[in-house]
Prior knowledge:
By secondary structure, this protein is α+β, with helices and mostly antiparallel strands. Helix content is 51%, strand content 15%. It has a four-stranded antiparallel sheet, with helices on one face. A three-stranded mixed sheet has the order 1-4-5, with helices on one face. Helix 5 (92-112) packs antiparallel against helix 7 (238-272) and helix 7 packs antiparallel against helix 8. The protein is globular. Flavin-adenine dinucleotide (FAD) binds at residues 100, 134-137, 142-143, 167-169, 210, 215, 363, 366-368, 370, 372-373, 388.
Amino acid sequence: SSNPDPHDFLDLDAGLAEEDRAIRDAVRAYAKDQLLDHVAEWYETGALPAAELAKGFGSLGLLGMHLEGYGCAGTSAVAYGIACRELEAVDSGLRSFVSVQGSLAMYAIHRWGSEEQRQEWLPRMATGDALGCFGLTEPDAGSDPGSMRTRAVRDGGDWVLSGTKMWITNGTVADVAVVWAQTDDGIRGFVVPTSTPGFTANEVKHKLSLRASLTAELVLDGVRLPSSAAFPEVRGLRGPLSCLNEARYGILFGVVGAARACYEAALEYTLSRSQFGKPLAGFQLTQRKLADLVVEVNRAGLVALQIGRLKDAGALHHNHVSFGKMANVRSALSVAREARSMLGANGISLEYPVMRHMANLETVLTYEGTEEMHALSLGQAVTGLAAFR
Length: 389
Ligand code: FAD
């Protein structure tokens, strides 16, 4: 019988439902037509046609894809994961765009918002007519969000928000920001229209990673909101952490796409380039690397699928997500770094995708819980001992 397919060695996609394969093919086709030819330029210039992308992703049904109602597609978790995988095969910044909209901003409103907040925002966000961002991190509060300083205080029937959020994806283009703030009652979430007086977003410049993504500092200077702007029920870090868990799920699937793109670039390159009179792929040292890459890509793909199945079965624990985020980002980074070497000098060029992916994955290692935070979660899960502080 013939060898396994080098592009799907463990035949993982054969086990996908028809719906999942249809979504995979739709996102791949869109990527080929609309994204792949432009992504290097977006990366180089750090500019992104956000409104146009939002409409495109919205028409594909990718925004809030796994949410029910309010114009969202309501797909399985695996289908959503596959969409993230195919987008991140193009660029982690584009997957971040969809993650922030669907898994952070929309999920927060869907899970914790009032009926009025859901009706107001979700249908427009699902089509891409309105963009959202998610403000948790601050200049002095990253891995330890409980130490945030942004505060919301009551003034008559209103809320008044003051503080600074940092590293907020899509902050400069968002119509609505989900902002987490300290109150007398613990941390609460607020739905903040970005046109509210006192709200400004400043672009973060000089990034060397995730350049095809817009990143902002949000300044809230006495932003006055009606009483109805707060999420009614949720208090404490449970609110934002529930959203991050959703977004991390998209990441553990997404990075499989970035890893696959690097592996495929290395395979194609080493088969077509010759030195010392034969293809690079014919040297034993190169084959050692190709074997490592195909193992890592498929192992990460298998981890993602299993976690997706747990999510669809309603059996997902947040430590499963920590496992997947830590394991798969680490795999993808090792694949990207190894692939980079295999392309030689071309490996450092934006003409090829590998160094772009490699640089992006440094952000992915850090955001949504650093690799160390997930290691501490897993450590606590297996020992029962917390080592966070
Ligand atoms: P720190 O928390 O200061 O950590 C620095 C280092 O110390 C890390 O290696 C960390 O693991 C380690 N460390 C910290 N505490 C411990 C400990 N107890 N034990 C061992 N090691 C420890 N945030 C949002 O809210 N919304 C967004 O949309 C968003 N988008 C982002 C986009 C980009 C491009 C980037 C780079 C970041 C984004 N973030 C966003 C922020 C991101 O979530 C934070 O950067 C992340 O949580 C880490 O926080 P920090 O950068 O302050 O690092």
